[in-house]
Amino acid sequence: MANRIFPTTRLRRSRSKSFLRDLVAENKLSSDDLIQPLFIADQKESQIDIPSMPGIYRHNLDSLYAETEELLKLGIKAIAIFPAIHPDKKNPEASHAFDQTNIVCNALQGIKQRFPEIISIADVALDPYTDHGHDGLLIDGKINNDETLKLLAQQALILSEAGADIIAPSDMMDGRVKAIRDSLESNNFVDTIILSYAAKYASSFYGPFRDAVGSAENLGNSSKKTYQMNFSNIDEALHEVEMDINEGADIVMIKPGTAYLDVVHAIKSKFQLPTFVYQVSGEYSMLALSIEKGWLDKNVMLESLMCCKRAGADAILTYAAKQIASELNT
Ligand code: PBG
Questions:
Q1: What is residue 1's predicted lDDT score, i.e. its pLDDT?
Q2: Quick check: pTM over 0.90?
Q3: pLDDT tens digit sequence for 117-151
Q4: % of the chain residues with pLDDT over 70
């Protein structure tokens, strides 16, 4: 490599004008890269505030459709739907997850009818529906892996039938991608994409999400550490991703995002598969609240998302998707 010596080389030359900086920019962010997570609930009010997530609401179905229309206008082509289920409908077996008239199935159908072009992503996990708040079945005080797999395969099928383009298992049971892929293939859903939350860590950054979907009180002091990953590990993340690819995942995701970009980089470099990042609720809220208070400039949000791209993310799930897309459009 040539010697890079001052003053032959002056790196500030290409930083001197805004247009120059754009020309030499190594990464770009556009609405093509952004996926908006949306919370829905069976409620009279069109939107209900989520106090721990500034600027984010729980929507009823009419409001979900209105929001989706706005997102499409801003160039956002994918949404991920998360339900807050009424406590009366939660039980140990998560039976409401298998009711084809539940709010998620209704939302997926309604979205498909109104906006056939949008990509809808449906989470597969039992936690919105269990009264203990866990992602799997609790049997003899433990989350039972193999019994849970049968339910996840069934849930994935119901969501595909309702019109989900992408099925996103977020439960971290071993073998769930294979169980879901087998169930989809044998029921002729050969084009349904599996976006696997492949490296999902047991993280305190999920706190505001659990407020939003109302699972925090169900979970109480119980942790998800027997199925979600230990945040000290990275080799294990590669292992998780390899298994999910072998089992039939089309896209893999790392979660949380911003604090785990070393994991994103390692996975993208090793597997060269579509790799998504989830900037999770706590990561969003830290920035959104500081922006709201005037402690951080609002550009910090774009910066954090660009860092995800620089680490190797092909797309980002972020609660800031709408806001950022509208800034990019102006
Ligand atoms: C549940 C699920 C969680 C998130 C997405 N799906 C929470 C959890 O695992 O407890 C977190 C998303 C966020 O914090 O924004 N299966």
A1: 63
A2: yes
A3: 999 999 999 999 999 999 999 999 999 999 999 99
A4: 99
> What tens digit of pLDDT does each residue of 305-322 get?
999 999 999 999 999 999
DSSP character string of 164-190: -SEEEE-S--TTHHHHHHHHHHHTT-T
Pocket test for ligand 1, best of 173, 209, 253, 284 (most atoms within 8 A of CB): 209
Q: Which of 85, 151, 170, 211 to mutate to test the pocket of ligand 1 (most atoms within 8 A of CB)?
A: 170
Name which residue sits closest to atom 10 of ligand 1, judged by CA.
206
What's the CA-to-centroid distance between 228 and ligand 1, angstroms?
A: 11
Express each pLDDT in 168-223 by its tens digit: 999 999 999 999 999 999 999 999 999 999 999 999 999 999 999 999 889 998 99
Is the distance from CB of 213 to CB of 82 less than 8 angstroms? yes
Q: Which domains does the chain have, with CATH numbers?
A: 28-328 (3.20.20.70)
The protein residue whose alpha carbon is closest to atom 7 in ligand 1 is 206
Task: Look at residue 217 in the predicted model and tell me its pLDDT.
Answer: 86
Amino acid sitting at position 195? L
Tokens for 122, please give them.
């449906």
- Among protein residues, the one with the nearest Cα to ligand 1's atom 16 is 170
Strands 137-139 and 142-144 turn out to be antiparallel
Distance 256 CA to ligand 1 centre (A): 9
Q: What residues are labeled active site? A: 200, 255
CA triple 152-158-163, angle to 5 deg: 125
Q: Which two tokens stand for residue 318?
A: 């972020």
CA of 280 to the centre of ligand 1 (A): 8
